[in-house]
Prior knowledge:
The chain has 13 helices and 13 strands. It has helices spanning 14-25, 55-58, 68-74, 85-99, 128-143, 155-162, 178-181, 195-203, 209-214, 217-224, 226-235, 266-287, 319-333; strands spanning 6-11, 37-39, 52-53, 79-81, 106-110, 113-117, 147-152, 170-172, 253-263, 289-300, 305-316, 339-347, 350-351. The strands form three sheets. It has a five-stranded mixed sheet. Helix 6 (155-162) links the parallel strand 7 and strand 8 (170-172). Helix 10 (217-224) crosses helix 11 and helix 12 crosses helix 13 (319-333). The protein is globular, with a radius of gyration of 20 Å.
Amino acid sequence: MMSDVIFHIDVNSAYLSWTSAHMLESGETLDLRTIPSIIGGDEKSRRGIVLAKSVPAKAFGIVTGEPVAAALKKCPMLTIAPPDHTLYAQYSQRLMKLLHTYTSDIEKLSVDECFLYYTPVAHRFPSCMEAAHTIKDRIREELGFTVNIGIAPNKLLAKMASDFQKPDRVHTLWKDEIPQKMWPLPVGELYMVGHASASRLNGFGIHTIGELAAADPEFLTTHFKSHGRQMWEFANGIDNRPVTANPHEAKGIGNSTTLKKDAVTAEEAKKVLLTLAISVSGRLREAGQLAGSICVELKYHTFETVSHQTTLLTPTSTTGVLQQCACQLFDEVWNGVPIRLLGIRTTKLVPEDTPT
Length: 356
C-alpha cells in the first residue's frame, strides 16, 4: 500500500493572474503579467495597498502589502488595476470545478489555494509528478492562468513545496528531501511562524528551519507554549492533519467590530482580538459546536480588506486557543497600516461531542 500523497495547489499571484486572464478573454492584447503591474488602490488617489504584483514589478522591489504610493515611487510607469473580488470568486469556482473532475477529496484553504488528496486516484496516473504536470498544464491551457503544485506526504510539506520557485512549477518535498530543501530556509518561511515568532526565535539563535528542527522541543514549549511544539513538529516535517473535503462546510460563527479609533500597534489590535475570541468561543459553546478553522479579517483605514486563515490541529471552542491562533494569523498578515476593523470567523464546525 502506497503512503499518502497530497498536492497543494496555489495560484500564482492570483488577483493579478485572474485580472489578466479576464482582460485577455475580453479582447485585450496586453498581458499585465508581462509588464510592471499591480492589483491595488486607485492610481489617481494613490491610496490603498499592493494586493498582487507581476514578476516585472517585483524586479523594482515592489512587495505585496506596501502602499500603492510607495510602489509608484519605485516604478513611476507602474500599471495599476483595481481589485474585483466578484471576478476572483468566479475564477476560483472555475478552478475548483476543474479539480473536481479528478477527485472530490479537495480541501479549499482560500480563494486561490487548496489541498488535493492524490492517493485514492493514484492508479489513474503513471506517477504523481505526471499527474501534477497534467493538472497544472490543463489549468494553464483551459483557464488561462498558472499554478504551483507542491507534492508531499502531508499537508505541511505540500504547502512548503508549492512555495518553492515560481511560477508554473511542480515541486516535491519528501521526508528525505527536508534537510536539503527545507532546513536551509529562514525560519520565518516555515508555515505558521509569523514575524513575531521568527524575531523571538532569532533572538534565541535560531535562524533557519533546520536549527528550529534541532532545537529542544521542551525549551520551545516553555517559551512559546503549544505553538512552540507545533513549530518544532512542522520544522521536522511532522503533520498528521488529513485532507478534509469541504463541499458542504457548515456555516461559520464569527464576530467583527469597527474600532472607534484606528489601531496602530499590534498590542492594541490583540486586545480587540481577545474580546472577539471571548465572544466567538461563547457563541460556539452555545451552539454546541467546535471550530475546525479560524480566519482573521482586517480592514485598514484605507478601506482595503485582507484576511488570513488556518485549519486548527484539533477542533475547539476554547477562548485561549482561538485567541492564540488569531494573534498568530494577525502577525502573519498585518503590514503595519492603521486598522479600522477587526474580525474573527470560525468555520468547519463539528458537534462538540465529535470524537477527536
